[in-house]
């Protein structure tokens, strides 16, 4: 299926040229490829896998910051998801491995780009790394995701100034409100990103109940395989 670039937002097309980190199933970097190529289902079906991150920001009251992806997005437009999710790039600062520093820097960069959250409000050493998940999910017949996703949690107050080309809306929700969203999303026609669903269903609520003692859940070795059967 050919890509009709004229049907997409120009800025989002430009971002499709960014170079993602291609990895093997054990998260070992094996090269780089464009964001475009990493998200084409034809390549995903042939095993192309890249590195990603997902950030969950909670305020001091313990509410989670959600975003709704902009309609301009090429993959999963208009979907609700966790605070921020994107990719470390094949650049020096974001390929460093120790203490997940490359992924931390990428997360800090994208929090500012997407949500206007200043870097100083989310210090790198306060992004709490929990674990990694490996998942695969189509967006439509052309695009999809196949990622090893680094999960970070941050608790604290932040100021948001969303980039409308990236983010359609933001809101804070309590745990009970998120549970209600998940229970009623289908009937209300509310779209939720697949990685967000997986993380919520498998992990998030136990983390949410222990926001002040997350180190007990930190797992730097496991890659949880949450793949379609």
Automatic annotation (TrEMBL):
InterPro entries: IsopentenylPP_isomerase_typ1, NUDIX_hydrolase-like_dom_sf, NUDIX_hydrolase_dom. Keywords: Isomerase, Isoprene biosynthesis, Lipid biosynthesis, Lipid metabolism, Magnesium, Metal-binding, Steroid biosynthesis. Pathway: Isoprenoid biosynthesis; dimethylallyl diphosphate biosynthesis; dimethylallyl diphosphate from isopentenyl diphosphate: step 1/1. Pfam families: NUDIX (PF00293). It comes from the Eukaryota. Its EC number is 5.3.3.2. One of its GO terms (biological process) is dimethylallyl diphosphate biosynthetic process. It is an enzyme of class 5 (isomerase). One of its GO terms (molecular function) is metal ion binding. Its cofactor is Mg(2+). GO terms for cellular component: cytoplasm. Residues 48-198 form the Nudix hydrolase domain. It catalyses: isopentenyl diphosphate = dimethylallyl diphosphate. Belongs to the IPP isomerase type 1 family. This is isopentenyl-diphosphate Delta-isomerase. It comes from Powellomyces hirtus. The lineage of its organism: Eukaryota, Fungi, Fungi incertae sedis, Chytridiomycota, Chytridiomycota incertae sedis.
């Amino acid at each position: 299926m050919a890509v009709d670039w004229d049907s997409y937002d120009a800025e989002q097309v430009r971002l499709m040229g960014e170079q993602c980190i291609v990895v093997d199933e054990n998260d070992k970097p094996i090269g780089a490829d464009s964001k475009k190529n990493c998200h084409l289902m034809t390549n995903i079906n042939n095993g192309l896998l890249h590195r990603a991150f997902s950030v969950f920001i909670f305020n001091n009251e313990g509410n989670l910051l959600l975003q709704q992806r902009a309609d301009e997005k090429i993959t999963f437009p208009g979907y609700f998801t966790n605070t921020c999710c994107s990719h470390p790039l094949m650049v020096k600062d974001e390929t460093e491995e120790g203490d997940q520093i490359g992924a931390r820097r990428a997360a800090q960069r994208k929090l500012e780009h997407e949500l206007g959250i200043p870097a100083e409000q989310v210090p790198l050493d306060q992004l709490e790394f929990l674990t990694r998940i490996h998942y695969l999910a189509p967006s439509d017949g052309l695009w999809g995701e196949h990622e090893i996703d680094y999960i970070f949690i941050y608790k604290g107050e932040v100021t948001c100034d969303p980039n409308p080309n990236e983010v359609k809306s933001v809101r804070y929700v309590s745990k009970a409100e998120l549970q209600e969203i998940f229970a009623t999303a289908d009937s209300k026609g509310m779209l939720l990103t697949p990685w967000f669903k997986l993380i919520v269903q498998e992990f998030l609520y136990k983390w949410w109940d222990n926001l002040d003692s997350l180190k007990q859940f930190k797992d730097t070795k496991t890659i949880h395989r949450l793949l379609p059967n």
